[in-house]
Recover the amino acids of this structure.
């Protein structure tokens, strides 16, 4: 892990309740970091298990969960995006499984991913306006409102 | 049917009914009798299939309508009769209506070609086998029409598959039947059955041309659209294929035609290979109880119909059994199977049969 | 979108047939829509469209307390409710440091393994249905029904159990139910043999599944495929063994793997997994019969759960790794709940697996991946 912490500009290390450590990185380093985690002999992360987003109102947090069968451990990478302009690099070129995850986050949180072609609403209907999982989301489309 | 014709003619003369009327009435009656018999047989067959499938899959099957569910298929038929006849907006209305008829009519017609007993043979033809095989191709045309006319991509794919399937199974089936024709030296059904009666059970053509029988049976599964070759029905892929857009009576016609075809082809197989209406036993009931000529004729006819139906039912049982057991084959795999295995085997079978026939090794 | 037009040798315009498989198609196992382009019967491209079963599971959590959300989580994957319950409960337990008694852990393990059997049986039946065999589904459902009866006796529900509570389970397993389970586990190996006798050497089944839809190791990892689909590709990643949760480290079982990565391998892995589940369940029943103890942590007040922080829990569900991450902000409602489910990633791989395959193979390959759409859309 030392090599990893030296190589990347780690802003914060948060120990989570389940015992794992979340490494917080600046958003421009996430892609390189995941690339490094995948290809370095030390970690050789096999899978990008999931990407999740959390809306902290002024910021949107993206959490990448990787699994390395060599270490037999999960690696959690996190980054904070400005809620006013939530755009980051896509990691599809590193792990293809990110495609649906990023679409989902785009759909539900409105986060843009540079380098992701074919971005579309995945779960919500095409005509839906807004991003439902944001904390201040309210449904503006009257077709979808059935109670006050 | 001489034993019935005689009293019929006498009856007509007695009541002074004109010859033309009596003659045409006779034919109408005969055809009516035979087609009603077929329809009832189909209803029973559908019920039997559902009951048997239920048995194979640890279920009860239909058990509400009638005693033990015996009227279920009748109820289904009545329901279909009263259903609304829907035609898709963009479908070709004429062809859409034509397709069920093109499928249904040949099947009904072919039924009259088959001899049920020595005396019941509505259409006498010297080239019965050839005629049968030719007419049985027409329903596929109907399926193709249905696929095109209903403007549904699933139907279209299904009709393509039906044609691919036809091309695959038809030739081995022909070669297998050809072996029988070679053995009997005739294309007439009556001759074929009579030849198979010469030496009782042993002269059945299933013995000299056993491979031919197997090939014929497998190919006929395909021609009946039964599992494992129900490629163009494939409810899990094509959502029952060409019948997707059909409802009501038109759907019922497709459905009936399919089951009738299954029944007819099995009857055909038992005529060709299993001695047809001839009893496998050396003694017949008619010989024992033959008092008058009329009684003898009636008993013999009933007995022969019984044997033909029994043999057909045995074959149908195997068909249903296979349906309960096997998954569906893929179209290209089936074509491969037909051309690579069925066709060579049927040709080899034909060769063997020719050698037996020519060399006189076939002592019967 | 217009289908691509090409010209053939004779200068005739050739158009790909665009066909919409889905929503109400009998073999899409729910409401998946596949926009498919066909050239004859060859699939040229497939685009999965999901979201028709999106119920907003993650958003709903934010407006409910932990206890209110608990009955909902069964619906994340309606065929394996106990796994969803376990995932959510153990995440909350990790967050608020709740101890789970040993007996409760064994009960959870037992129920989950039985649930895995029901899920795999349903897969087996419907998969064979997709391939055109009509009877195996009835044989599979016959055994599934036995387990569902046990579940119904125990929890009052056949599919949406709502049986877990924070720090244990709702009820103890009575001796009668344990006997029933034991009786089932005794006859089950014979039933598996029955399925195998119809299927494993069936030439048509082999020709429909062998060498088809090959998922290589690298592709599977790249697409984050987990569960039985991954194990059929030659990896032994089973999180019950890799990172044991509950009492899996005390139980004796093997991880079943195959190397071919085709539909047939996936079938074999699932059959083998059912056998292993039977083994695990038998051990759990053995423990539960011979040991007594608390079935729940009675010191927990489920209404007063107000954790802080973030915790993930992972469960090896029948359809792949299931991760539930709960982010809490100290209030009585979760701040954010994220479900990571196996099927979501299995759907994603369809375009890759189906390209240039026969039309009939769509169902054979898609069925073999064992996708449940409620899990995809959440």
């Amino acid at each position: 892990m030392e090599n990893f912490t030296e190589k990347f500009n780690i802003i914060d290390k948060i120990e989570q309740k389940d015992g794992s450590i979340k490494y917080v990185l600046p958003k421009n380093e996430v892609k390189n970091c995941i690339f490094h985690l995948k290809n370095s002999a030390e970690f050789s992360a096999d899978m990008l298990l999931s990407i999740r987003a959390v809306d902290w109102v002024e910021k949107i947090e993206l959490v990448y969960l990787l699994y390395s069968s060599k270490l037999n451990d999960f690696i959690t990478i996190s980054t904070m995006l400005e809620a006013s302009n939530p755009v980051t690099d896509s990691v599809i070129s590193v792990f293809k499984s990110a495609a649906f995850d990023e679409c989902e986050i785009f759909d539900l949180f409105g986060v843009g991913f540079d380098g992701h072609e074919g971005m579309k609403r995945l779960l919500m209907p095409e005509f839906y306006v807004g991003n439902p999982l944001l904390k201040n989301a309210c449904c503006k489309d009257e077709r979808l409102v059935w109670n006050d | 049917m001489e034993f019935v014709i005689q009293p019929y003619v006498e009856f007509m003369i007695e009541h002074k009914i004109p010859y033309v009327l009596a003659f045409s009435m006779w034919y109408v009656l005969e055809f009516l009798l035979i087609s009603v018999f077929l329809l009832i047989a189909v209803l029973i067959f559908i019920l039997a299939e559902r009951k048997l499938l239920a048995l194979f899959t640890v279920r009860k099957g239909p058990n509400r309508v009638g005693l033990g569910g015996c009227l279920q298929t009748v109820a289904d038929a009545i329901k279909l009769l009263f259903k609304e006849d829907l035609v898709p907006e963009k479908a070709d209305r004429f062809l859409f209506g034509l397709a069920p008829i093109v499928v249904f009519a040949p099947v009904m017609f072919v039924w009259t070609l088959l001899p049920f007993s020595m005396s019941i043979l509505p259409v006498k033809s010297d080239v019965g086998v050839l005629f049968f095989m030719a007419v049985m191709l027409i329903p596929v045309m109907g399926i193709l029409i249905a696929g095109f006319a209903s403007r549904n991509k699933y139907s279209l794919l299904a009709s393509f598959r039906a044609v691919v399937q036809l091309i695959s199974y038809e030739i081995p089936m022909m070669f297998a039947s050809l072996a029988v024709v070679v053995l009997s030296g005739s294309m007439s059904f009556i001759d074929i059955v009579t030849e198979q009666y010469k030496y009782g059970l042993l002269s059945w053509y299933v013995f000299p041309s056993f491979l031919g029988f197997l090939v014929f049976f497998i190919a006929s599964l395909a021609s009946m659209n039964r599992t494992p070759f129900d490629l163009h029905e494939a409810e899990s892929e094509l959502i029952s294929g060409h019948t997707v857009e059909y409802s009501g009576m038109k759907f019922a016609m497709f459905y009936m035609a399919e089951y009738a075809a299954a029944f007819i082809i099995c009857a055909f197989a038992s005529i060709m290979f299993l001695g047809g209406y001839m009893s496998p036993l050396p003694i017949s009931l008619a010989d024992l109880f033959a008092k008058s000529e009329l009684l003898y004729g009636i008993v013999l006819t009933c007995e022969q119909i019984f044997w033909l139906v029994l043999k057909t039912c045995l074959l149908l049982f195997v068909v249903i059994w296979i349906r309960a057991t096997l998954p569906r084959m893929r179209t290209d795999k089936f074509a491969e199977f037909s051309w690579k295995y069925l066709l060579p085997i049927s040709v080899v079978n034909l060769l063997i049969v020719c050698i037996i026939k020519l060399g006189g090794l076939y002592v019967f | 979108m217009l289908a691509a037009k090409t010209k053939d040798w004779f200068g005739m315009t050739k158009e790909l047939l665009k066909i919409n498989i889905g929503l109400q198609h009998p073999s899409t196992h729910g409401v998946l829509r596949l926009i498919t382009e066909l050239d004859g019967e060859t699939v040229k491209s497939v685009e999965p469209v999901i979201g028709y079963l999106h119920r907003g599971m993650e958003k709903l959590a934010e407006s409910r307390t932990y206890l209110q959300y608990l009955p909902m989580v069964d619906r994340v994957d309606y065929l394996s409710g106990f796994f969803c319950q376990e995932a959510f409960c153990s995440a909350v337990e990790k967050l608020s440091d709740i101890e789970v008694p040993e007996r409760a852990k064994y009960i959870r393990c037992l129920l989950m393994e039985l649930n895995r059997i029901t899920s795999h049986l349903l897969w087996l039946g419907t998969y064979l249905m997709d391939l055109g065999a009509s009877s195996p589904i009835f044989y599979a459902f016959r055994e599934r029904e036995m387990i569902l009866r046990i579940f119904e006796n125990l929890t009052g529900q056949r599919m949406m159990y709502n049986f877990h509570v924070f720090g244990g389970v709702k009820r103890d397993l009575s001796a009668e139910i344990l006997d029933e389970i034991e009786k089932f586990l005794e006859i089950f190996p014979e039933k598996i043999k029955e399925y195998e006798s119809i299927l494993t050497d069936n030439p048509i089944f082999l020709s429909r599944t062998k060498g088809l839809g090959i998922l290589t190791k690298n592709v599977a990892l790249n697409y984050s495929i987990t569960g039985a689909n991954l194990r059929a590709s030659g990896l032994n990643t089973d999180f019950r063994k890799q990172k044991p949760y509950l009492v899996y480290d005390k139980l004796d079982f093997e991880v079943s793997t195959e190397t071919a990565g085709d539909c047939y391998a996936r079938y074999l892995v699932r059959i083998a997994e059912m056998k292993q589940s039977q083994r695990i369940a038998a051990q759990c029943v053995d423990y539960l019969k011979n040991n007594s103890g608390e079935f729940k942590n009675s010191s927990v007040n489920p209404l007063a759960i107000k954790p802080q922080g973030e915790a993930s829990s992972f469960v090896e569900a029948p359809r792949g790794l299931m991760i539930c991450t709960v982010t809490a902000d100290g209030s009585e409602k979760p701040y954010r709940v994220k479900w990571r489910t196996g099927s979501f990633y299995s759907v994603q791989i369809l375009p890759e697996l189906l390209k240039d395959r026969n039309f009939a193979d769509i169902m054979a390959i898609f069925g073999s991946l064992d996708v449940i759409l409620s899990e995809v859309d959440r």
